[in-house]
C-alpha cells in the first residue's frame, strides 16, 4: 500500500493501473491585470510530463477574476503566457486551493499566495534558462557565450559549467522536484549544444565533424536523457526528435518528404533507443504533434495502435484517443459540393484561372497546408463567405503546396469548409505566383489579393478576413 501511495503522489507515469490512487485536483484563483486585450493561455504538466502543445485559455469573469480547477495526482507545473506577446512564467502547484494574481505586463514574475515559495524560486530560474536557450537558438542573445564559438569542446565546457552552477542552486526542495529541475537544466543544455552542433557540423571538415560528434557524445552522457524526469523539460520533445534525426538523417543519410515515413522512422528509433517513461512520452508526443500541427498523417493511427499495445495504461491515453479521433475525422472528410477543385495540369498562366470568372471580383487567398498562420486564419472566414455569397464574389484559394501534398490539400479544404474555387500551383505558373504576390522571389503567406470585375489585379496585397471592415471596402471598390 505504501508503494502505491508513493506512485500516486510522485506523479510517475507507468503502465501500471493505479486503481488505489485517489484523483486530486488543483484549484487556482485570482485577478488578472494589464492584458491589453490579449488572452492568457496556460499549460500544465501531466504527471510531470510537459506536453508542449496542450494549451487552454484562461477564462476571465467580468471583473477580471478567474478560477480554474485541474485534476492531478501530485505536484505539477503550470505555465502561463500572454498569447502572442510574452511568457508570464511558471509556478509549481500542490493539490488544493491557491491564489495567484497575474500582472500580464511582467515577464516571469508569478508569485502565488501561500504557494511553494522555494520551489517557485527554482521554477523562475528554469524559466529564465528556457528563455536563454530560446534566445540562443533565435540569435536574440547569448548568455552562454557559445553562439560564435566554433570549437566543440569549448561549447561543451561552457554549457556544462553553466548547467552545473545552476544545478547547485537547486536546494531545499523535495527529491522529486530536485530531479525534475536537474533534468530540465541538462536537457536545456543539450538543446543549446544541438543548436551549435547543427551549424558547425554542416560546414565543417571531416576532422571538425568528428570533434563535434565526440563532444556530442559527451553531452549526451551529461544530459542522461534516459532519466525518467527528463520528460518534465519543455525542451524534451525537441531534444529526442533531434537525437533521432541526427542518427537517422545525418549519420545514415536517410531522406524523406513523406510524413508517414518520417513518423515511422522516428517511432521505430524511439522503440529501439529509448526505454520506459522516456520512450512512452516520446512516442506519445509524436502522435500528439500530428494533432497540434494539424498534419493528419494517414499512418498515425497505426502508430497509435502500436503505442496502445506497448502502454495500454499510459497517462497520455485520453489525450491520444482525442487526437486519433480528430485524425480519423479529417481523413474521412468528404468534399461538399460548394468546394470546387480545379484541374491545373494544362494551365500555363495564372490569368487563365482568373479568366474563368469574367465580370466578377475575385478574392484570392494564397496559402499552404504546412502554414500554421494560414490554417489559423480560416477561423475568420464565415463573414467573408457570407459577404461573397450575397455579392457574387469569387473566393479563389491558391495553394503553393507541392504535388506530393495534393491529397492532404484536398482534405484540408474540406476540413476547414473553404467554400469556393481551389487550385494548387504547377511548375508552369509557380514563379508567376511568387513574383506577383511576393517580393524578390520570397512569398510570405497567408497572402491576400483582389482582382476586380475587369480582370485587373486591383489589390495585390489585400486586407485579411480578420479585418473584415477594411476587406469589405476593398471588395466593394473592386466590384464597381
Structure description:
This protein is of the alpha/beta class and 480 residues long. It folds into three domains: 115 residues, Immunoglobulin-like (Sandwich), CATH 2.60.40; 107 residues; 140 residues, Glutaredoxin, CATH 3.40.30. It is built from 16 helices and 14 strands. The strands form three sheets. The chain has a six-stranded mixed β-sheet with strand order 9-12-11-10-13-14, with helices on one face. Strands 1, 4, 7 and 8 form a four-stranded mixed β-sheet that branches. A four-stranded antiparallel β-sheet has the order 3-2-5-6. The chain is globular. The relative contact order is 0.07.
Q: How many individual domains?
A: 3
CATH class of the largest domain: Alpha Beta
Mean pLDDT: 91
Helix content: 40-55%
Spatial separation of the terminal alpha carbons: 79 Å
Shape: globular
Largest sheet strand order: 9-12-11-10-13-14
- Rg from C-alpha positions? 25 Å
Level-2 CATH architecture of the largest domain: 3-Layer(aba) Sandwich
What is the N-to-C order of secondary-structure elements (H for helix, E for strand)?
Answer: HEEEEEEEEHHHHHHHHHEHEHHEHEHEEH
Annotation field: number of helices:
16
Strand percentage: 15-25%
Largest sheet: 6 strands, mixed
Q: Are there runs of 5+ residues with pLDDT below 50, and where?
A: 1-21
Class derived from helix and strand content:
alpha/beta
Q: Assign the CATH superfamily of the largest domain.
A: Glutaredoxin
CATH topology of the largest domain: Glutaredoxin
Number of DSSP strand runs? 14
Amino acid at each position: 500500500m505504501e508503494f502505491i501511495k508513493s506512485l500516486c503522489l510522485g506523479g510517475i507515469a507507468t503502465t501500471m493501473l493505479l486503481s488505489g490512487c485517489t484523483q486530486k485536483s488543483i484549484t487556482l484563483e485570482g485577478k488578472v491585470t494589464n492584458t491589453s486585450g490579449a488572452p492568457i493561455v496556460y499549460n500544465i504538466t501531466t504527471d510531470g510530463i510537459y506536453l508542449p502543445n496542450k494549451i487552454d485559455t484562461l477564462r476571465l469573469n467580468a471583473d477580471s477574476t478567474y478560477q480554474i480547477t485541474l485534476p492531478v495526482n501530485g505536484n505539477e507545473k503550470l505555465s502561463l503566457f500572454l498569447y502572442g506577446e510574452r511568457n508570464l512564467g511558471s509556478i509549481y502547484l500542490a493539490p488544493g486551493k491557491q491564489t495567484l494574481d497575474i500582472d500580464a505586463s511582467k515577464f516571469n514574475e508569478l508569485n502565488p499566495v501561500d504557494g511553494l515559495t522555494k520551489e517557485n524560486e527554482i521554477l523562475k530560474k528554469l524559466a529564465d534558462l528556457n528563455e536563454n536557450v530560446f534566445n540562443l537558438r533565435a540569435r536574440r542573445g547569448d548568455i552562454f557565450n557559445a553562439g560564435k564559438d566554433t570549437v566543440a569542446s569549448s561549447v561543451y565546457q561552457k554549457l556544462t559549467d553553466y548547467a552545473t552552477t545552476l544545478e547547485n542552486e537547486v536546494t531545499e526542495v523535495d527529491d522529486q522536484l530536485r530531479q525534475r529541475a536537474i533534468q530540465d537544466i541538462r536537457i536545456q543544455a543539450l538543446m543549446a549544444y544541438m543548436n551549435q552542433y547543427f551549424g558547425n557540423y554542416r560546414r565543417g571538415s571531416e576532422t571538425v565533424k568528428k570533434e563535434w560528434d565526440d563532444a556530442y557524445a559527451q553531452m549526451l552522457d551529461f544530459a542522461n536523457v534516459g532519466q525518467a524526469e527528463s520528460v518534465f523539460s519543455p525542451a524534451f520533445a525537441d531534444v529526442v526528435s533531434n537525437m533521432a534525426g541526427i542518427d537517422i538523417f545525418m549519420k545514415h543519410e536517410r531522406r524523406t518528404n513523406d510524413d508517414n515515413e518520417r513518423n515511422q522512422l522516428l517511432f521505430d528509433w524511439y522503440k529501439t533507443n529509448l526505454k520506459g517513461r522516456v520512450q512512452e512520452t516520446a512516442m506519445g508526443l509524436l502522435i500528439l504533434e500530428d494533432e497540434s500541427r494539424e498534419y493528419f498523417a494517414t499512418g498515425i493511427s497505426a502508430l497509435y495502435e502500436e503505442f496502445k499495445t506497448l502502454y495500454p495504461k499510459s497517462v497520455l491515453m485520453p489525450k491520444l484517443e482525442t487526437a486519433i479521433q480528430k485524425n480519423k475525422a479529417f481523413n474521412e472528410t468528404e468534399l461538399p459540393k460548394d468546394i470546387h477543385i480545379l484541374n491545373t495540369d494544362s494551365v500555363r498562366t495564372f490569368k487563365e484561372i482568373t479568366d474563368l470568372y469574367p465580370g466578377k471580383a475575385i478574392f484570392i487567398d494564397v496559402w499552404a497546408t504546412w502554414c500554421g498562420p494560414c490554417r489559423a486564419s480560416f477561423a475568420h472566414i464565415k463573414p467573408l463567405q457570407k459577404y461573397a455569397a450575397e455579392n457574387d464574389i469569387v473566393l479563389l484559394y491558391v495553394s503553393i503546396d507541392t504535388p506530393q501534398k495534393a491529397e492532404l490539400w484536398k482534405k484540408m479544404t474540406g476540413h476547414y469548409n473553404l467554400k469556393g474555387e481551389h487550385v494548387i500551383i504547377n511548375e508552369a505558373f509557380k514563379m508567376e505566383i511568387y513574383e506577383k504576390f511576393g517580393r524578390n522571389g520570397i512569398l510570405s503567406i497567408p497572402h491576400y489579393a483582389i482582382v476586380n470585375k475587369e480582370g485587373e489585379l486591383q489589390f495585390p496585397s489585400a486586407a485579411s478576413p480578420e479585418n473584415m471592415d477594411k476587406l469589405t471596402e476593398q471588395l466593394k471598390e473592386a466590384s464597381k
